[in-house]
Amino acid sequence: IEPIGVITCKAAVAWGPGEPLVMEEVEVSPPQPMEIRIKVVCTSLCRSDVTAWQSQAIFPRIFGHEASGIVESVGEGVTEFEVGDRVLTLFTGECMSCKHCTSTKSNMCQVLGLERKGLMHSDQKTRFSIKGKPIYHYCAVSSFSEYTVVHSGCAVKVSSRAPLEKICLFSCGVAAGLGAAWKVANISEGSTVAIYGLGTVGLSVAQGAKLRGASRIIGVDINTGKSEIAKAFGVTDFINPDDCSESVHQVVKRITDGGADYSFECVGDTETITTALQSCCDGWGLTVTLGVPKVTPLISTHYGLFLSGKTLTGSLFGGWKPKSDIPSLIDMYLRKEIKIDELITHNMPFEEINQAFNLMTEGKCLRCVIHM
Ligand code: APR
Ligand code: ZN
């Protein structure tokens, strides 16, 4: 067997906050023990990439965390994957043995959970460099590169029938929305739902609510351009808060006889969490927050909302155990029980990745799929 060497390939490197990415030749080190190196096939741009690119301080960095690809090489000790396997990357992994992985109540792996420092979990180093200078990771995935290295616990094998140029969406946004509706809220038939923010995440919550037989799905977005696609994903009533003469939670309360059974925050704004909480009903109203706020991380709300019996909860990746649960979502897609193709508004070659950032910043896309 030939030893696995360094690969030099193209990557879109972010050198500073909000600065256009630059195509660079990067060195990608061989996978370390329990890691795999992946040839990225497709990667979609998620709002969290844009939020982190605009507001975080770790640079130079390779973003990207919704991706599909093919295993190029495997590190020592890896038995789960072979060269040539088709995989999805996971921004939150599953080690299968920690307290959370062995509990049915959680997907918050203690070993391979969300990585925030731009390093690899196992040795706190990077696998990318330019002329020897380290380039940081994002969520231990970094898919805006022709090749990337991830921990074997941060990837999942997918069916050979699943189209890689579509299913990359299951790596984050779509799964997060469906899981919030099904696993976290466990929406029951005939219930009323209010969804704040109708991007890929909010529309996936709507699809999940519709499939559970929700009687009314109220979608709230400041962009009226979202109303058409929202209908296609099950939204029965579209509200643009800017068009209302009263506050939006009052509108929701009026049309749902005192508040929705469930409300979801899919914007990434803590003030909207408060609004979502105000729009669900007393007694059993449940608010699920999914967004990642860019500013003001603290939530401020009146204690009385909780005394009246409302619950506020959140979830990462829709509460799914990524390795265990994602293959069944892909199977549902292959059986045409859930749709995702309609969420892909743009396809583009890797060289045009900055165009995807522009479209998302301007609110002109749902998902842009970047073909490597
Ligand atoms: N009220 C209602 N809708 C809003 C508001 C607001 N104050 N501000 C923005 N929006 C709408 C936007 O017009 C857009 O349609 O929220 C939607 C957000 O969609 P995307 O930007 O496409 O984001 P998405 O990928 O769906 O992610 C939503 O979840 O995973 C997190 O980081 C992600 O915080 C982000 C959120
Ligand atoms: Zn674990």
Tell me about this structure.
It contains 10 helices and 17 strands. It has helices at residues 47-55, 164-167, 173-184, 200-211, 227-232, 248-255, 270-279, 304-307, 322-334, 353-361, and strands at residues 7-13, 22-28, 35-44, 66-74, 86-89, 128-130, 133-135, 147-151, 155-157, 192-196, 216-220, 237-239, 262-265, 286-289, 311-314, 344-349, 367-371. Strands 3, 4, 5, 8, 9, 16 and 17 form a 7-stranded mixed sheet that branches. A 6-stranded parallel sheet has the order 12-11-10-13-14-15, with helices on both faces. α3 packs parallel to α4 (200-211) and α6 (248-255) runs parallel beside α7 (270-279). The mean pLDDT is 96. The protein binds adenosine-5-diphosphoribose and zinc ion (ZN). The site of adenosine-5-diphosphoribose (APR) has 28 residues, from α1, α3 and α4.
Structure summary:
This protein has 372 residues and is an alpha/beta fold. The protein has ten helices and 17 strands. Strands 3, 4, 5, 8, 9, 16 and 17 form a seven-stranded mixed β-sheet that branches.
Task: Give the amount of beta strand, in percent.
Answer: 15-25%
Query: What is the subunit arrangement here?
Result: single chain
Instruction: Work out the helix count.
Output: 10
Proportion in helices: 10-25%
Question: Which stretches are poorly predicted, pLDDT < 50 over at least 5 residues?
Answer: none
E-strand count: 17
Shape, per Cα inertia axes = globular
Question: How can the largest sheet be summarized?
Answer: 7 strands, mixed
Helix/strand order, N-terminal first: EEEHEEEEEEHHEHEHEHEHEHEHEHE
Radius of gyration: 20 Å
Structural class: alpha/beta
Mean pLDDT: 96
Which cofactor or ligand species appear? Answer: adenosine-5-diphosphoribose, zinc ion
Distance between the termini: 28 Å
